[in-house]
Amino acid sequence: MRRLIWLAFILACVVVPFGAYVRLSDAGLGCPDWPGCYGQISPHHAAAEILQQHAQNPDGPVSLGKAWREMGHRYLAGALGLLIVAIGWQAWRRKYHRRAAGALLAVVLLQGLLGMWTVTLLLKPAIVTLHLLGGASVLLLLAWLALSPRLPPLAAPAPLAWLARALALAVALQLALGGWVSTNYAALACQGFPACNGEWWPQMRFEHAFHLFRALGEAPDGSPLAVGNLVAIHWLHRLGALLVAALCLSVVRAGWRLPALRGHLCCLLAALSLQIGLGIANVLLALPLPVAVLHNAGAACLLLLSSLLAWRLRPLARQARAVEQPLLRAAKDGREWV
User: Fold this and answer.
1) Burial annotation 88-113 (CB, 10 A radius, 16+ → b, else e)
2) d(CA 242, CA 275)
3) Fewest CB within 10 angstroms: 23, 27, 210, 329, which?
4) Is 52 exposed, middle or buried (0-12, 13-18, 19+ CB in 10 A)?
């Protein structure tokens, strides 16, 4: 079963960034139906329809290359889903982390629905962002199943443990913000770094920027999103990056006193530095596709590291209660026998 979990985890490490590649290369509607491609099992079988659509609109979302990227992602995601079903069956049969395996199966089922709605609802930003978060959740659950035996819990001062949990939550929110930036094509709304369009506090409009029930590129009334909306989305993501960096540095500083944590903290700090560098490169280099995909993969890596750290750390007060309670029960049982 361990090999099955590791195989699924490695495959998830491919599927999640590959999904970002499909989205960032505008191939999300390469096959505008689901689960097949123009009713066929592969773009090869639907080549005539795809080429016809591409000839009618050469700059549109449909082409043979985009169709293969879209279907390639579906094939890999389907294989991952089958592996997770097998893991769930083995976990239930062997009574091994049944809750985690059950949660993993539930998230994968939801991911399948979100993948379908991503296509049928024409890349609605809320659906695509939820699909991204679902993929990160699958990766996180698989990482926990694979790595938890090798990352034993550690007693830590309560402020450090709560700070680590705050960091994990902030990274998750930042991942959601990054997905919102990407799905709304707001990555280049701010030109230049660290200022935005030459201003330290740019003109922003928040009234429709984070409305969940709207179509791609449109306000709820059907009008196009204003530039100020896109700037607001982008700028809030930058502010979120500052918060994540501040929390990460605080965790590293507070946790450095524990030698058992230093390797984990070094990895966390390296992931943060790489992620900040990739984010700046996206802005200054006008969103090159390889850098944008790596930025998505780096976000997933940062989420994994911060979440596993939050799971490992146990506040000392709770650790003490966990030790005291069995002793008190033993003492009570002893008195009853007397």
Assistant:
1) beebeeeeebeebbebbbebbeebbe
2) 12
3) 329
4) exposed
CA of 86: how far to CAs of 78, 90, 93, 106, 143, in Å? 13, 6, 11, 14, 16
pLDDT at 330: 47
Q: Are 193 and 201 in contact (CB under 8 A)?
A: no
Cα(16)–Cα(265) distance, integer angstroms: 24
Closest by Cα among 239, 238, 206, 240 to 225: 206
Query: Is residue 70 flagged as an active site residue?
Result: yes
Distances (CA, A) of 290 to 40, 136, 295: 30, 19, 9
Q: Tell me: the pLDDT tens digits for 35-93?
A: 999 999 999 999 999 999 999 999 888 999 999 999 999 999 999 999 999 999 998 88
Q: For residues 102 and 11, what is the distance between their CA atoms, to the nearest angstrom?
A: 19
Any alpha helices (H) in 194-288, and if so which ranges? 227-255, 262-284
Residue 126 has pLDDT above 90, yes or no: yes
pTM summary value: 0.90
Dihedral sign, Cα of residue 206, residue 210, residue 216, residue 222: negative
Q: Which of 70, 199, 324, 336 is catalytic?
A: 70
Q: For residue 239, what are its two tokens? A: 């502010």
